[in-house]
């Protein structure tokens, strides 16, 4: 079980890295500042990040490592169905990546550091997307 969870976490890190690399690749679409392809790619990268970080939270919850709490109760010790736990970690991951969070589910312990990394990536990803788009546009207009 532990080996499977370590594999899931490694797979999550790999998918996050590959998604970021694919987002930063140059696309040669002459004369277009914003393309449907880049927007779709950004959407896919966001979904990948949400699922990857959600799987990290869920893996740690399965190992009974406290990472998230709702109110004053640790999510690992709540009597929720497995589907409800998946829904809760994906919700927390999406809210953390896309905003500063609502505060209904809060990270604790190692979950705080994971949430900090996720929030930093969530803040930097749109900036990197727009910078690469502008650089690609300037380079394609010089040609």
Structure in words:
It is a single chain. This protein has 143 residues and is mostly helical. It is 70% helix and 6% strand. The chain contains four helices and three strands. A three-stranded antiparallel sheet has the order 2-1-3. Strand 1 (68-70) and strand 2 (73-74) form a beta hairpin. Helix 2 crosses helix 3, helix 2 packs antiparallel against helix 4 (110-142) and helix 3 crosses helix 4. The protein is elongated and about 60 Å long.
Characteristic key phrases:
about 140 residues; about 5% strand; 3-stranded antiparallel β-sheet
Rounded mean pLDDT is 79
Report the structural category: mainly alpha
Strand content: 5-15%
Largest pleated sheet: 3 strands, antiparallel
- Approximate helicity band: 55-70%
Number of strands: 3
Order of helices and strands: HHEEHEH
The end-to-end span amounts to 55 Å
Give, in spatial order, the strands making up the sheet with the most strands: 2-1-3
What is the molecular shape?
elongated
Low-confidence stretches: none
How many separate helices? 4
Radius of gyration: 18 Å
């Amino acid at each position: 079980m532990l080996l499977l969870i370590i594999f899931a976490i490694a797979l999550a890190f790999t998918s996050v890295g590959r998604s970021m690399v694919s987002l930063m690749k140059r696309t040669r679409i002459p004369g277009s500042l914003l393309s449907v392809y880049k927007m779709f790619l950004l959407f896919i990268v966001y979904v990948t990040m949400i699922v990857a970080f959600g799987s990290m939270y869920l893996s740690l919850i399965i190992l009974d490592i406290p990472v998230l709490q709702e109110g004053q109760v640790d999510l690992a010790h709540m009597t929720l169905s497995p589907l409800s736990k998946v829904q809760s970690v994906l919700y927390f991951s999406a809210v953390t990546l896309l905003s500063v969070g609502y505060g209904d589910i809060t990270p604790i312990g190692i979950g705080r550091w994971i949430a900090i990394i996720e929030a930093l990536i969530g803040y930097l990803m749109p900036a990197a997307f727009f910078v690469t788009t502008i650089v690609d546009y300037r380079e394609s207009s010089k040609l």
